[in-house]
Amino acid sequence: MSASSNMNWDRRNVLRAAMGLAAAGGLAACGSNTGRGSGGSGDGLVQYFHAYGEAGVEQAVKRYAKAYKGANVTTQWITGNNFEQKLFAALLTKNAPDVFEFHPQIQMVKSGQVADLTDIIEPVKDDFNQADIKSHTVDGKIYGVRMIDDPQFLFYRPSMFEKAKIEVPTTLEELIEAADKLTTSKVKGIFLGNDLTSVDRPLIWSAGADTLTADNKPAFNTDAVAEGLKQLRGLFTSGNLLLDAPADSWDPSAFIQGLTAIQWCGMWAMPAMQKALGDDIGIFPFPKVGSAGKQSVYNGGWSMFVNAKSKNVEAAKEYVKWLWIDQKQYQEDFATSYGFHIPPRTSLAASATKLKSGLPAEGVKLFNEFGHFDNIGWTQAMIASFWDVIANTVRKNGDPKAALDACEKKVDAELKKLFG
Amino acid sequence: MSTTTTRGVAQPAPAKVSKTRPRRGLRANSTFNFWLFTGPFLIGLVIFVFVPIGWSIWLSFFEARFTVTPSEFVGFDNYKQILTDANFRNSLVTFTVFAAFIVPATWALSLGLALLVNRLRFMRAFFRSVFFLPTAVSYVAASLIWKMSIFNGVRFGLANTVLGWFGVENIAWLANPDPPWYWLVIVTVRLWLQSGFFMILFLAALQNIPQELYEAAAIDGAKRGWQTFRHITLPQLRATSTAVILLLLIAAYQAFDEFFNLLAKATWGQPPLVELYKMALGQNQNYGAGSAGAVVLTLLICVVTLFQGKIMGFGRGEESK
Questions:
Q1: DSSP one-letter code for B209
Q2: Which residues lie closer than 8 Å to B48 by C-beta, 6 or more apart?
Q3: pLDDT at A400 over 90
Q4: Phi and psi at residue B316, in whole multiples of 5°?
Q5: How far is B171 from chain A (nearest CA, A)?
Q6: Which residue of A256, A383, B15, B117 is most buried, as measured by CB atoms within 10 A?
Q7: How many helices and strands (H and E) does chain B possess?
Q8: Which of B66, B174, B178 sits opposite A396 (nearest CB)?
Q9: How far apart are CA B96 and CA B106, in angstroms?
Q10: Average of per-residue pLDDT across B87-102
Q11: Is the distance from CB of A229 to CB of A400 less than 8 angstroms?
Q12: What CATH code is assigned to B80-320?
């Protein structure tokens, strides 16, 4: 009798403890997510940066901020692979950053999230790469200052190509064939990122299509793009594609560790690759898809924006002007001292000696010859719906044409919201 | 024997209540104590739980894109959108599949561990702690370990190395959904993380089963092992099992971290919370539709919990079986 009433008492307690723990766990999860201690309002400015992979970038960004006398600038270094989600969510709250880096996307302009920076850029407008000015302009107003241009292309190991007796591929068929010949028991032929989304736009451009037309209508739903997706599906199932690598394609690790002979990556990774592999590195653009296609390079990059809803818009603009317009030595340091990036200022690009010879110079050449810049009308929601196409047709065996049609419908809906 | 003990359990409860009633002098004091102890928790509950729930219900009737203080009332449009959204409906299927794997698996594994640890004569505290330890690991950290070292797709990943000894080709555990190996990754990481905790619950319950029951069964000729387990241990664990299954189901509904980290940029294996996160906090930032989805999900959880309570008798006295 006494044993059994004890049993009841204990069981309840145990349950209570369980509930308590579960509740406490939930609360702790909420509480630990505040992100930062102080700042945001008052004299301080807060800036958001995504985590650059190269050593020293974080310290450099904080060093520049410290050198600024106009305000106390706090840097939030956002790690993880969902910078845009964290940024978008933060922008709605009182803890929003005053200054942040991102890509030009028109929904932020239309919803009044980014401030007009025309007055600080106008005086030096002619010194910028005009494509970068164009990609940040809506109705004659410029909304962001480009910090760096990041061309992305395919890196390969010439020694492995020689051994397999193959030439640098210029068409997707040749690339897939090369991957097959290069694959051994230890080395996979090619790495396009674990989810293949990093080659989304190159695939569209190389197939002779585009994300949007000049008057903002979907332009990616073509037979050539569908054919390209089908070919990538073949590559995905061939066993010649490196998948589930510990580091994704923006990081040069897979290439450096010899897990793959070809890798999609960006110019930023060149210093790390050269340090590990010396001269055994070559680059080539994303090969052409279908007969009407053309090789392409994605000229990505990052820009500085000012949060239009910040309490310190003027102070924030002052800081952006100081660092990303006036301080040329910091801009050059940022573009060439850690990873390699092309400075969007033509005067700096002309004087950056590290980009003048060898592999970086070849990168600059591909950037100029094959590069496609961001289209401000191609927003995150559209990017994500094209990523779904890649997931459904390349990683899953879905019908490319049907997936592209579904994507076009979503993009159309977005365009209607943005442009009416 | 067993009927007398269970009756005995239920009786003291009403007796206790009647005993406290006459002590009116302490009533004001105990009211004060009640608020003193529950007040801080209630304030937190109101601010962090009830206000957001109310706000979310309010948001669900508005067109709230890129804002949480909307002004355009749209009635049930958001509900219509979310209920006709194929992704949201698929997420409920994903949840069902996930729950069908994880709930019985965790139940069986934690019960098994509890039985093993309970039989130990030496180092029982050590093994209890060892099995409980993973509970302290964060889901994010564990999923990264699973993704980057155990189940990565390259030749030196742990799983692929082991398979390599038997001449099996490298498997892309997460990138390739066909065959759906990602379920193995997702189920094993959660199994590792949560079975220790539920093992402790079972262990406590096991230690409270009166030894006399086993003795009496032995006298009646029951064999040790399966027979006593099936007819004594399992029925005695009924209340704990019910609670564990309920907690497991709720935890499965709340699944987010490992799916979010392991299946990024996939269109499959997206449970409800990930789907709602994408809708509200992702590139769409549609807080109206996201909130409508959250309300639908909450109602669904309530219904399932009540239904499960009805079937398994959670919270009911044991005499009403």
A1: S
A2: A27, A30
A3: yes
A4: -90, 150
A5: 9
A6: B117
A7: 17, 0
A8: B178
A9: 15
A10: 92
A11: yes
A12: 1.10.3720.10
B250-298: pLDDT as tens digits = 899 889 999 998 998 888 999 999 988 888 877 667 888 999 999 999 8
The full set of domain ranges for chain A reads 45-150+299-369, 152-298+376-419
**Closest partner CB to B265 (pick from A107, A195, A259):** A195
CA distances from B267 to A249, B80, B94 (A): 20, 22, 11
CA atoms within 13 A on the CB side of A196: 26
DSSP letters of A247-270? S-TTSTHHHHTTSEEEEEEEGGGH
Q: Which of A2, A4, A111 to mutate to test the interface with B (most CBs of B within 10 A)?
A: A4
Q: Where are the beta strands (DSSP E) in A29-72?
A: 45-50
pLDDT in the model for residue B25: 53
Q: Residues of B numbered 242-281 whose beta carbons fall under 8 angstroms of chain A's beta carbons: which are they? A: 243, 247, 250-251, 264-268, 281
Q: Inter-chain contact A244–B175, Cβ cutoff 8 Å?
A: yes
**Residue that the structure tokens 């599906």 belong to:** A233
Strands A282-284, A145-156: pairing kind: antiparallel
Neighbours of A125 (CB within 10 A): 12
Predicted local confidence at residue A282, as pLDDT:
97
Q: Which tokens hold the place of A305?
A: 């924006």
**Chain B residues touching A92 at Cβ < 8 A:** 66-68, 285
* Residue B50, number of CB atoms within 10 A of its CB: 11
CA distance A62 to chain B (A): 27
Peptide bond connecting B22 to the previous residue in cis, omega within 30 degrees of 0: no
**The CATH number of the domain covering residues in A45-150+299-369:** 3.40.190.10
**Structural tokens at position B49:** 């739980």
Give the separation between CA B220 and CA B214, rounded to whole angstroms. 10
Same fold, A45-150+299-369 and A152-298+376-419: yes
Own/partner long-range contacts of A331-336 (Cβ < 8 Å, ≥24 apart):
A331/A147, A333/A60, A334/A57, A334/A60, A334/A61, A334/A64, A334/A147, A334/A148, A335/A147, A335/A148
- A152-298+376-419 — its CATH code? 3.40.190.10
Contacts of A224 (CB under 8 A, 6+ apart): A207, A208, A209, A289, A290, A292, A293
Q: ipTM exceeding 0.85?
A: no
The separation between CA B47 and the C-alpha centre of its own chain, rounded to angstroms, equals: 24
User: B26-63: per-residue pLDDT in tens?
Assistant: 556 888 888 899 999 999 999 998 999 999 999 999 98
Distance, in Å, from the CA atom of A222 to the CA atom of A207, rounded to the nearest integer, reads: 8
Give the pair of three-digit tokens for residue A344: 């969007």
Identity of the residue in A107, A111, A186 whose CB atom sits nearest the CB atom of B155: A186
